[in-house]
Amino acid sequence: MTGETLAIRPAAVEVRDVHKWYGAQRVLNGVELTVRPGEVTVILGPSGSGKSTLLRVINHLEKPEIGHVSLNGELIGVRRHGERSETGVPPAEGRGRLKELTERAILAQRGRIGFVFQNFNLFPHLTVLDNVAAAPVATRRLKRPEARELARTLLDRVGLADKADAYPRQLSGGQQQRVAIARALALRPGVILFDEPTSALDPELVGEVLAVIKDLATSGTTLIIVTHEIGFAREVADRIVFLDEGRVVEQGSPTEVLDHPTHERTRDFLSKVL
Ligand code: ADP
Ligand code: MG
């Protein structure tokens, strides 16, 4: 892709000056993040630095008190501290007046974001196949037979074609997480968010899940991955973002951030995890 094409395509995800409080605690403190289509962004940071909250804001599971998130150039949410979410037209931002999306539009946007959680979150009463097929049916994107066909293709892609009729409890953690990834893919999302996808796994199961994510990374899927797997981050990330106390402290290529960190907080964190 030429630089020119890149420049005119909107960012897959854009986070602008996002602030988020829980009660009196400020959890996100002016986060800025731009993720281009096809780019793999890894978010690093100590526990409690706001990584999960940032993913939840991007997926619109949480609303920021200040700032906005846009997906492919479409605004997800804009609020000023103290304003109610129902406000019609928010204050003019740098790019002109942007209308807040309706709840319905928010749901439609969320349907274009895949989310893979630490604890898999599969439906225990559904087979593996139906776990993957459920979302496209529920969103009425596909009829059941087509959704199941898609699910079989995706299970094959994550190496689990033979587990289609099993139930989640019959699978290892690594297999369950690969089902969760197939389920995220079933929505044909514009971006997939991963929140510590391997941190609940026994060490010997981590590799199979990272291999599936790496396959997505090299096939041009836009990914935002929170992980403590530094070696993996170095291999797959186009950009590494280091978050501390709700702020992006530094960001850059893996070499820049991992080998030549400029901030004390980053150096301190890396010395503990490397
Ligand atoms: P990380 O994922 O980097 O460990 P989180 O985003 O989960 O950090 O949390 C950031 C801070 O926000 C922590 O201090 C956490 O306790 C607090 N927090 C997270 N979620 C909530 C919530 N729903 N209610 C209150 N506080 C929360
Ligand atoms: Mg977290």
Automatic annotation (TrEMBL):
SMART domains: AAA. It is a peripheral membrane protein. Its main location: membrane. Residues 13-270 form the ABC transporter domain. GO terms for molecular function: ATP binding. InterPro entries: AAA+_ATPase (IPR003593), ABC_ATPase_HisP-typ (IPR030679), ABC_transporter-like_ATP-bd (IPR003439), ABC_transporter-like_CS (IPR017871), MetN_ABC_transporter-like (IPR050086), P-loop_NTPase (IPR027417). SUPFAM superfamilies: P-loop containing nucleoside triphosphate hydrolases. Keywords: Amino-acid transport, ATP-binding, Cell membrane, Membrane, Nucleotide-binding, Transport. It is found in: Cell membrane. Pfam families: ABC_tran (PF00005). PANTHER family: AMINO ACID IMPORT ATP-BINDING PROTEIN, GLUTAMATE_ASPARTATE IMPORT ATP-BINDING PROTEIN GLTL. Belongs to the ABC transporter superfamily. This is Amino acid ABC transporter ATP-binding protein.
